Structures are given as C-alpha cells and as structure tokens.
User: What shape does this take?
Amino acid sequence: MTMSRKPRIKTGPILLGLPAGLFLLAFFLVPLGYVTVLSFSDPSWGIANYRELFNSRLFLMTLGNTFWMAAVVTGLSLLLAYPLAYVAATSKGTLGKTILMIVALSFWTSYLVRTYAWMVILGVQGPIPALVALFGHSPPPRLLFTSFAATLGMTHGLIPFMTMALFAVMKRIDPKLMDAAGSLGARPWRVFWHIYLPLSAPGIINGITLVFITCLGFYVMPVLLGSPREQTIAGLIGDRMEQILDFGGAAAMSLVLLAASLGLFSVYSRYFGMDRLWGGRI
Amino acid sequence: MTLVRLGAIAITIFLAAPLLVVVPMSFSTAPSLQFPPPGLWVGFYAKFFADPNWTGPLVNSIIIGIATAVLTMAVAVPASFALVRHRFPGRSAFNLLLMTPLIVPHIVMALGYYVYFGELRLLQSYLGVVLAHTCFSIPVAMLIITAALKGFDLSLERAAMSLGARPLTVFRLVTMPILAPAFVIAGLFAFVHSFDETVVSLFISGRDVATLPRQMFNSFRMEADPVISVASSLLFAAALAGVLVPAAVRSVRRTLDRRNSPLAS
Assistant: This one.
C-alpha cells in the first residue's frame, strides 16, 4: 500500500449511490419538473390554469369527492382490517395462518383482476343484483358504475394493505402485557382500550396514511367501477389528457393532487419519520 | 373474543369470495358477464392463446418485467449498500429521493412521461416503459434489500478479509450467497410491480408495446371481449401459485426437518 493519506472525501458511498441517484433524477424528477412547468406554461405562461381550476365547479366537486371517497375507504378498511390483523397477530392456530394467506393472495392479485371480479358480481347479470331482485326489488338497482361500486372495490382492494401495516406493529406487541392487566382485574375491553389499542396506534397511523394517499391518486378502480358523473381527480386528469388534450389543465390538476399526497406524507414524516411508514425497515 | 374471531372469519370470506368468481367465468359459455356461468367450456382459452391482441401484450409484459427487474437490481443493490453501510452528507435526502416514487400518484407520472418521453422519442417503446417502471420498482426493491442488509453480520466479511480475501472475492463468496435470497425476492417484487403496473403503461406504451394490463384496461372499457376472463384467471393463478408454493415448500421442509432431527425418534 503506497497510497498517501489525504483528507478523505468518501468516494465509496457516492459511487454506490450515483447510479440510482442519476437514474431517478433523469427519469423521475425531470418528468415531474415537466409537469410543473407545463402547468404554468401551457397554453400560455402564467397561473391561468390554476385560476381556471379553482373557478371550476366540476373541479372543486371532484376534489371534494376524491377526498371524501378516500376518507370513507380509509375508514372502512381500517374498521375491517383491524380485527383481521388482531386475530392474525394473536392466534397461533390455523385461523391466523389462513387469514395471512388470504390477505397475501388478495394483495398479490392485480387490481385489474379484482376490478373484473366486482364487475361480474355487481353487473346486471351478477349474483348481487339477482339477490336484491329476489327480495322483491325490481328492477334491480344499478350497482355497477356508481360511487358505491368504486368505494366497495377500493375498500376490498386496500384491506390487505391496511392489514399488513397493522400486523407489522401488532406482532411485536408483547401478549404478557395484556395477561398482566387481566390478572390485575381489568376487563377484556378495558385491557384492549387502555393497552392494546394505544400500542397498536403506530400501525393505525401507518395504515391510514398509506391507504389515504393511495386512494387520492387511485386511477384504475374509480375509472372502471365508478360513476362517470362523480369522478375522482385521477380520472379527471386522464380525461383531460386523452379526450381534450388539455395538458396544461391536466398538469395543474396533477400538481394539486401531488401537493395533497406529498403534503400528507411530509406531515407524517415530520411527526414520525418517513422510514417508519413502510414498517421502519430502512 | 370469539365474537372477534367470527368477525375476522367473515371479513376473510369477504376478502376471498370475490376472487372465487374469476376462474369459473373463464370457463363460461356465455359471452357476457353472467354469473353463475350457464355452461362450461375452454373456448375462451383457445381464443386467448390464438389472438395476437392478447398474446402480444402478454409477451410484452414479460419482456418489460424482466428488463425492469434487471435494471432495478443494477441500481438498487449498490444504493442499498450506500444507505445501510455508510453515513454521508445528504444521506437522508438521498433516502427521500429513493422512496418518493411510492408516494407520487401514477397518473401524475403518466402525464410527465407522456410529455418528456414524447420529446425523447421514447413513447411506444420498450425502453420508455422499462425506464418508467424501474422508477416505481426501485423503492420496492430497496425496502427488501436494505432490510436484509441490516440483518447482515459484518463479522463474516471481516473474517474473510482477515484470511486475505480481496473485497470482490469477499462479495462473491460471502456477501452474495448470504444475500442471494433477498436479491431474488427483490427482483421478483420488481418484476411483479412492473407486470401489474397499469396507469403509466396505459398512457405511454401505445399499441406497439401494449402491456397486458393496458390491454385488459381497454377491454374493460369497451365491455366487449369475454376473453378478459382468461387474462384475469391467468393472473389470479399466478398470484395463487406465488402464495401457495412458498407455503407448501415451507411446510414440506418443516416436516422433513422434524423427521430428520435426532430428537424426533
């Protein structure tokens, strides 16, 4: 070794990180920059696109609808995923394993396949309208292509996501704590309310943050299952691009959607640190 | 307690039941979305595999998925080493950059790629779709690789080095074999992420390199092609195999271990 000792600039991590950094700069940040510039420049420079958006009833209603739908889906999937994750984390028998297996299966099944399943089930010739008709409701109500269908499909689609976020935290909760509280005379619901629920709170916060952000930008299910009259922002952006070729307007909407997603994410990171969001693995 | 278990069972059924309609539909004789199917046959499978409008996108998706997985691993593995093993200025900003593709909605990126790749003449090309998909796959792969790297015992590498192995030999003979399972899983996640990606493909892949999700999405919109049920069933079967095969392997291995362990007799 004849290397002279200079004050070292660490070249190792720079060389290791450079390919990923340059790649994301060129193919992630630059296209995002294009969207930003487009929103201020197409068709002419200025904030006309934004002014138009916030004067448009359609856009404001869609914005409200998107947030409302995201809130409903997040609430429902938390409500349904919590007992699922709880049983999976606390029971050692077959039930816990079966739950995890079904959750994984649902998680790995493409959103398009799940969309197809709901199209069959809610469709005019499907089992649910037939069931409704059986109870004397005729003609059967139109279920497909409504906000109800989109909400149902998204909730079903995001329960696995929510369950995994909850399970990651719940499986680390020491069951002895609950036993201790029980042996000191606390009733089961008090044990749950004062011990289990607070300990699982980080999982709840991770789950609702991830699911809510995913819902805000969700395109496939709202477009395919939802009502064309009550769109979400993502659907509206798609329409602008495909049908009217209004890229400036689409870009302005994209920036509003982006600001909402990144805003929520930064609030989360501010209080909890971004690395925990995906299970604190980095 | 039992009430909670009953609830969990009901929710599990709610989760699983819709998926169970997919496969029977692909064997249906009816050209519409009639459930239960009026009769069974395999005609739609024959149609799927004879129609280039379906087999073409299937092949495209596989090509794009493999290329995405390779490219993702090529940049994500070194970046994971940088993040886990080194402390350097700008590390948290770098970490943030690597993770944001998970937060930015795909429809926003679809617009960005549409304009940007339009200028670079990468629209309707394999390369364009692969570059876009790699951006989304990098954070997914990073989460898996960094988790494995954190659990890696550095003293193994030190032992090899103290015995005189050069850094590359250490990587090849010690680091790589230990991390190989994590690399395989990360590559697999990158592939699946690309294979399932719908929104960006929809806007930038065009007719020439149409992916399977794009073809499925458009066919849903037209509400015409019953062959969609076959595509859905194939994807569902792949997911089922992905979940059941590892579980089966694990249980077989456990049985064998038990039988071979000296305590069992």
